[in-house]
Amino acid sequence: MRQVTSGFPQKILLAVVTAGSLSGIASLPAQASSHREAPFITRHPKVDAADFYMFRSYEANRSAFTTLIANYSPLQDAYGGPNYFSMDPDALYEIHIDNVGDGKEHLTFQFRFTNTNNDAQFTVGGKKVSVPLVINGGAIDGVNAAGLNVRETYTVTMVTGDRRTGTRQAVTNATTGSTTFDKPVDYIGNKSIPDYAGYAAKHVFAINIPGCATPGKVFVGQRKDPFVVNLGETFDLINIKAPATAFDPNAEKAGRDDLAMKNVTAIEMEVPTTCLTNGKEAVIGGWTTASLRQGRAINPTPSSTGAASKEGGAWTQVSRLGMPLVNEVVIGLKDKDQFNHSKPSGDAQFLNYVTNPTLPALVEVFFGSAGAKAPTNFPRNDLVATFLTGIKGVNQPATVTPSEMLRLNTTTPVSATQNRLGVIGGDSAGFPNGRRPGDDVVDIALRVVMGRLCTLSIGCVPADAPAGSLDFTDGAYLDSSYTDNAFPYLKTPVAGALKR
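Structure tokens predicted for DUF4331 domain-containing protein (500 residues):
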């Protein structure tokens, strides 16, 4: 089979050998898929894109749809009250689709959020006083429930053509015709929201998408972060407490998952696939971005009726995510902010990071004596295919401009049983042919960056990759059992508190 992958690892790297030549461990620093990956974005967590997924829907009887998931605001502690993790009403969140192969958006779905303070008040000592919480008492069980003190809503706009100058049309609720959708409040706890799964499900809306004869779906809300990563031990000079050996059958599960109790906010759409393709090309590319206004004036004397800041000027992109792991462990530190501000059509400026990557060299520095030798083929055309063009016969458009984005061949059948290793595991419907929440992109990426495609004679030859056959793993296991089998796919978030 062919291979895959695109980002490069983020967690720790443990190398497992299929035969018996490597008896040591190979571990190397990395990060969550796109959690706090660039200096500037750490100052704006609400617009920090964590992960992007694009796949043919594998819910029963929904294979004619494509699911798009853009996760934002990573590393949420479930108990993070009293304000929790609302989206930024002064930001523009977008999902872009290139259905031509030229590195430019041709469809964009824009999300804007509004937070309305209902100013619930209690009468205390004969005076009405505003309560300090986002709920004002009483269990929350429905859309725009009476107990909510802050109502969060959003709109969805579809832009055809350029995201700033193209034709704009509203996405509407297929049942009510409304252009406004409610977002569920975060999972404060079981006392506030006794049935969060049922409550969140009421916020999955059927939608009419301009130009589509068949309705799609939309959901925006807090979810359990589906990604797994051993962050703490990795960045403590790879201080791994339970390293795996070459002969340890549990090597792929030996690492600790520091995201096990973390949530994210997911922006999700399920769209009829025919409404995403152009009718001629079956491969689509996708990525997500977030933008802020160019100017911000801080109000030195905010009041109950005056905002804390005033935003103005042109939209300025501050976050970008297509293929996982790119800005974490491919792009050099000095260019991480620049990458987040860039467009796929301008990716020639980052070409050296792909053709001459530093990650394999770092692996060799740390673990070369154990057999983890970096590939020797330069330029790394195998990685150019993975990151910038798609792999021929897997997910490469007939005509393609090299540019970094997640690419999905929409004609590839949905897998009856998912393999967490995607294409290199024999599952042609998995990463890098799109990305499903259960695809272990870190393990896939590690094996590809160390030359797995060379062993398959894709863009290079076996002799170019001395460690290409090694089954590298970060030790944090992930497969499709970590998610649900129906939209919105990501599991119910971790509760802020349990009912006593």
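The radius of gyration is 23 Å.
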